[in-house]
Structure formats: structure tokens, C-alpha cells
Design goal:
heterodimer; A: 187 residues; alpha+beta; Ubiquitin-like (UB roll); DNA polymerase, domain 1; five-stranded mixed beta sheet; B: 326 residues; Uridine Diphospho-n-acetylenolpyruvylglucosamine Reductase, domain 2; Enolase-like, domain 1; 13 helices
Amino acid sequence: MHFTINGQSYDVEPDIRTSVLDLCREHLGLTGSKKGCDHGQCGACTVLINGRRVNSCLTLAVMHQDDEITTIEGIGQPGNLHALQEAFVRHDGYQCGYCTPGQICSAVGMLDEVKKGWASHASGDLTDPKFDDAEISERMSGNLCRCAAYPNIVDAIREVGGAEPAGRTADEKDAAMEANARGELVA
Amino acid sequence: MKTFTYEKAATPEAAVKDIDTSGAKFIAGGTNLLDLMKLQVETPDKLVDISRLDLAKIEEREDGGLTIGALVPNSDLAADRRVVAKYEVLSRALLAGASGQLRNKATTGGNLLQRTRCYYFYDTAAACNKREPGSGCSAIGGFNRILAVLGTSEHCIATHPSDMAVAMRALDATIVTLKADGDRRRISIHDFYRLPGDTPQIENALEAGELITHIELPAPPKGKQEYRKVRDRASYAFALVSVAAVVDVQNGVIASASLAFGGLGPMPWRNPAVEAALVGKAPSDAVFEAAATALLADAKGYGSNDFKIPLARRTLIATLRNVTGA
């Protein structure tokens, strides 16, 4: 079988039952994607296939030989971090870090969905979805964090995605940023 | 997981020919099938990959309706501007289900064919007439909080887990199929699903090897649309009770109503008596109560799911208040 992962070509012959997750981890040494539940419930295995976020544990490798697969290793590397990776570090968006590769791959896909104008269950108007903390939480609900670093994960994604902080208008945010710039501490 | 042979179908016609053993199954998104294969609840000896067939388009028809390819991912269907504008109940139902990752993979056809999330169906050590006909039902008398209160039998109390299919039922969808002999069928969603009776393993009208190719929605219905879902978490959980409502009020009177329910029965539930209790009446709580009574006349709780009966009543009434403005 032939695969394209993070722009690199691979030829391997895994068992027909191999998931994309097991292909990456067990056959190609790409161990960034994590196996949490192996049933599509936790999101730790999230990768991008043709730019769309999916659970790599719930899809067969054999079905994705003609696709572009991107794992966390392709999102960023040491010294060349993706903006979301930097934001997770800055906001301490984890404790143990096991869910983090899935969180970040999922957030990359999710922000692209926002850019395309896709609404979510949290959207009041499906034709004009706002992007705020409630939207981030809803859109990221397929990624569990057993350490419950959720507030910091939301902070990191909000910073990169340009969402409005909960309960604050754009004007209030600008005022807070100006106050911060003057050296006044505003939470 | 039991091993299997794999074939990738080039056309729908080839796909139905490739289903040449009783143990063969189609696979598209695979989010439900692979989950069940890992647990050996499903043990196909052959998978026919239909994921690359040319069935992923949404097209407008001359009669004002939409034809949705069976392989349209749930996320694309929910985001389609025509669906958002004219069939909001369907977008809302899709967005209320699963997670972003799953919606990107799961298909329209596969969503219709989702298997129940009954714990005992998943647990191969438990008795389950749906998984192993004749073995009994561990859910009756077991932990049945998430299970059905309508349409059950002494053999099975499983619920159908889909949100999408509930909206499709309220919208009078038609399921278009291709059979192994090359014939096409059009099946109303109202005739598609089967009550468990004494054959809970038979869930729908599909024949062996029959492939869903499209789902047709009739021209958009009149009235306001809403999908209301009650669940244990705010996101990413199956419905305990859900209501898909399309209700048109003209001159202070309910001119038409279409109501379908999730979480209550072995299929997306619809009962004409509910709509008959509403149509021609001025919206009021007394009228809504009568509709709820019609819905739940034959409801039967199994202990830990008894709460669903009053919950369904309240959810229906709240939804009707909202869509009628009463």
C-alpha cells in the first residue's frame, strides 16, 4: 500500500485491518498521534485527511491510499512550531499532554471550518455564526482532556482563531489590551 | 477484529455486484461499522469500499426539492447553504450530533443505518436479540436509562441513535436505492425502518446487498423549523429525547405540523395522531398537552428510562411553544 503523510511517501504492507492511527504509530514511527479510546470518543488520534479533521482510529488505512494525511508531526516541528502549538505552550493548554496532539490537529481543522463559514450547534444564526468561547467549546467537544485543561485550551485557540473572549465585546477587548499596554493589569 | 477481504468499488453498479457473500458489507465513512468490528459485534468477511463513488453531491431538483448523495458527509450537508436556508431543522439536527471529527467522516447514507447504542448490543457477553437473535434481552430489567419507551417489544427495547434521521422523517425524505439486480427503488422514510417485534435484527427495508445511493427531500415545507435535543451533556452525546418540528401557523391557527422524535423509539418516531391533535387548532398549552398525550398514549417505561415519558411531554410542549410563538 502507498501512503502520503506529511508530504512524504511511504510504501508498507500492513494488515488489512490497520487503522490510519496504527499505520502511523506502529508502522511508520509517527507516534505523535495518540491512542486514547480507539473508538472515536476521545479525539486523541485526530489527524487531518485532505485538510479535514477526522478520528484516525476509526478509519482504515487501506481506504486512504490516495489522500494527503497530516499528523501533528507535519503541523509543526521543534524550532518551527505552528501558531497553535506556541499558543498551547504560552497558555499552558495541558497537564499530562497526552491529548495535546489531537487537540491541536483538531483545532487546525476546526479553525478552517470556521473560515469556511460552517455553523455549529452553538450558533444562534446558522448563516452568520459568531466565533466566541461557547463556539470553541462546542466545536472542540470531540477532544477530551482528562486533566481538564479546558480553560487554557480555549484561551490558546481563542488567541490564534481571533475569537472574542467570553462576555467581552471587541471594544472592551481593545480597551483591555490598551490598558495592558499602559502597564495596567487587566485580567 | 476479525479479518476480511477488501474491494474498492468503481461504480454503484459494481458495488452491488461485489456484495456476493452474506457476510459482505459496504463501508463508507466507517465510523460506526469499524467501531462495531473492533468489538466483534460486526464480523463481515468482506468490505466493499464505496467511499469514492460519485455520490457526494447535493443537487436541486425541478420540483424545488434536494437530492442528496448518500456519501455527502454530515458536516457538508449541515453547512450546505440550501439546507441551512430551507431545511434548517436538518442542519440543526446534524450539528446536534456527534463531534466535528465524526461529522467530517460520517455519511448521509451511513447515518440512516446507524446501529443502536444499547449497552447490551455492544457487550458481546450480554444477551441481545438484535446482535444474536434468540439470545434474549439483557436491557429489559437491566440498565435501560437511554433506551426506548415507544415501539418496543418483549424482545428488544433499543433506540435508533440518529439525530439526522429524525429531521429527515419530519421532512418526509425518500431513500433511493440500487439493488443487486440493478433495479432502483424509492422508499419513503416512513416505510424504511422496522419495529423490533420478534425480529429486532431486521432494522430496515433494505434487501441483502441493496445500496442507498441518494436521499431526496421534497420542496421545503412551510412554517417554522426547530430541532430540540435533550441529552446528558451539552455536546457530543446521544439524545435522551429530541424533537424535530416543522409547524406552520396561519391566521392564529396551526395550518400544518410535522413532528418527529429521537431517543424514544427503535426508529425515528412519527405518529400522525400527534399532528392531528394540532392541525386546525389555535396554539395553546391545552392543545400542546393533547398532542403530547397522543404521542405518549402507548409509552411504556422499563424502570430506569421511565423519566423519558414526562421528559418527552415537556420537550414537545416547549418546542411547540417556541415554533408557534404561543
